Amino acid sequence: MASFRDRVPSVQSNAASQQQQPIVQHDGPADTKQKTVQTQSKAATVTGVLQIHLQNSTKSSTVYAYITGQAINNNNALFLLRADAKTPYYPPNPPSTGTKLGANVSIPLGAPGNTITATIPQLAGGRIWFSIGAPLVFAVNPGPGLVEPSIFNPQDPNINTSFGFAEFTFNSAQLFVNISYVDFVGPPIALTLTDTSNTTQHVSGMPANGMQAVASGLVAQTQKDGRRWSSLIVNTSTASNSGQLLRILSPNSGILLNPTWFQPYWTDYVNQVYARYTTSPLTVNTQASFGNVTGEVGSQGNLNFGAGGLFPKPTAADIFGCSTGPFATGQNAETNTIIPRLAAAFNRSTLLATNNIPDGEQVSQYYTNATTNHYARIVHSANLDGKGYAFPYDDVVPDGGVPQEGALFSYSPALLTVAVGGNGAHAA
């Protein structure tokens, strides 16, 4: 979901969205239009709790689930659900970093096809985790702050465990939930949300062989262009289990671990884009009060949107990560509405196909340039419905356009079903 929150040593912040505040998902910096669903006066549930069906769709009987977040109605206290899937656990403030949890929070899902019913209170910054083959290890730092499993720390006790998560926020107004590949591809996860009027929404996720399909696609792309795509594939490396597909890193995660990867990848494309908009304007629909704004490349080589700010040429790390260089958000609200749309257009390589973003873009144009975010292209193709966050601003679409991000929300949720493993995965 996963998120920027995971990109520093895996410590969950104590800060959380307050009740009756906008819901902002974790896949990128807050954006006034995308990923933010304004709260309403409607109550999400009468009881203030939500039932979640945790479904084992793997072929393993050793599968665990975890639910974490901040308890909105308990002063945003750090929350984990105990192994019985119904009892809250609020870790006390520990005296030192890396303190072991004082409760069992591993929810066993049982045999393939089994479903466990979990009950949670209203939570902000929530995650539903799954692990296959072994339980996950969480710890607590002073705060308290949750030390989450990390794909970036080779010393993390979970580094050789297959795991993944969905992200959600459940407050007094609504439930918002999504699957994410922003940081990595792990076990397939699918979402089904039923509301109190029995209306159902569904995000399909990948089938059981989805991760292998992504790996094969990345290998094929490396054979085609010689870039580091296949290096994003991570296999197990323990003495007893070596060479099995474990997870697939996103390009921004690969760069965080290996800063030289993809360094020159976007250079030629970026130069072409800036050359084009030296002689013609680029129009960005901010999808906010600023409306349509136009920018051109000025004498200093920056894409100049006037009051919307200056955008120097981005690097590969800027484009894949969407949060650094010209895409770092700041105090200028207008700039902050341009950033997601410009970053998305770079990742999808549509800036040479249209001079009007995102409104001039078609899904059929995404990822068609030889230089593009091929990880995102391949990940979308591996999802049965094509949906899921493949980069932080993958929810940017034209007004009335086709969603790409794999998110669901309801003002009156009754039941959320989260399935892990991909067996029986289907498109709605």
Automatic annotation (TrEMBL):
Domain GH64: 47-407
Entries under CDD domains matching the protein: GH64-GluB-like
Low complexity bias (residue ranges): 9-22
Annotated spans, Disordered: 1-32
Chain ranges passing through the membrane: none
Annotated source species: Friedmanniomyces simplex
InterPro entries found in the cross-reference section: Glyco_hydro_64, Glyco_hydro_64_fam, Glyco_hydro_64_N_2, Osmotin/thaumatin-like_sf
Protein name listed in UniProt: GH64 domain-containing protein
